[in-house]
Amino acid sequence: MSSTQLHASQTGASSGALQFAVDAAIVEHEANGWPYTTYRIITTYQGQTFAVHRRYKELRALHDQLKPFCQGLPDAFPAWANLFNRYAPDVVEQRKAAITRYLVDAIAALRGSPVPAAMRDFLQLTPAEEKDAVEEAPIMTQAQLETSDTVILVAYQLPLQ
């Protein structure tokens, strides 16, 4: 199978460049025997590569979660035709390309905002690093002494050998 690969340039305080590839479609079966297709989505994010298998209905759920963050997304999830021959190789290739295009369009619709948690969870990405926004708490803090505080100084002498 050919790989469908697209790049999305995302610049924000908590995200680096995103790159998507949908390189495989796998037919699996429900517990009742009904077949369904999962698509393997490869994502490169902040210099790391992640792989996840997702179904079409999971993409619809992602769309509903992303709509508040991505104003450029359509109100309804883009429907893909060919439900009756959805396992045909050409239909699988069309869906792989459509999934990749959708992910790239969703990132573009963010217009530089950080990647929403819903998308990071969907793609199983590591949490965004907020180095600039979060200051690390110091290990020791300086205390203010009151006049009523008692200070005990202890000196230790280590034995010399």
Explain the overall architecture.
The chain has three helices and four strands. The model is unreliable at 1-15 and 130-135 (pLDDT under 50). With 161 residues, it is an alpha+beta fold. It has one domain (4-122): Phox-like domain (PX Domain). β2 and β3 form a beta hairpin. Strands 1-2-3-4 form a four-stranded antiparallel β-sheet. The chain has helices at 56-66, 89-109, 117-122; strands at 4-8, 18-29, 35-45, 48-55. The longest helix is centred in the middle third of the chain and has 21 residues, at 89-109. InterPro entries: PX_dom, PX_dom_sf. It comes from Coccolithus braarudii. One of its GO terms (molecular function) is phosphatidylinositol binding.
Instruction: Count the E strands.
Output: 4
Helix content: 10-25%
Major β-sheet, in short?
A: 4 strands, antiparallel
Strand content: 15-25%
Poorly predicted sequence stretches spanning 5 or more consecutive residues: 1-15, 130-135
How many separate helices? 3
Structural class: alpha+beta
CATH superfamily: Phox-like domain
Map the helices and strands:
Elements: E1 4-8, E2 18-29, E3 35-45, E4 48-55, H1 56-66, H2 89-109, H3 117-122
Antiparallel strand pairs: 1-2, 2-3, 3-4
Pfam family, one: PX
Domain PX: 17-129
Protein name: PX domain-containing protein
Characteristics of this structure?
161 residues, alpha+beta, PX Domain, 4-stranded antiparallel beta sheet, 24% helix, elongated, disordered N terminus, PX_dom, phosphatidylinositol binding, PX domain-containing protein
Short account of what is shown:
The protein is an alpha+beta fold and 161 residues long.
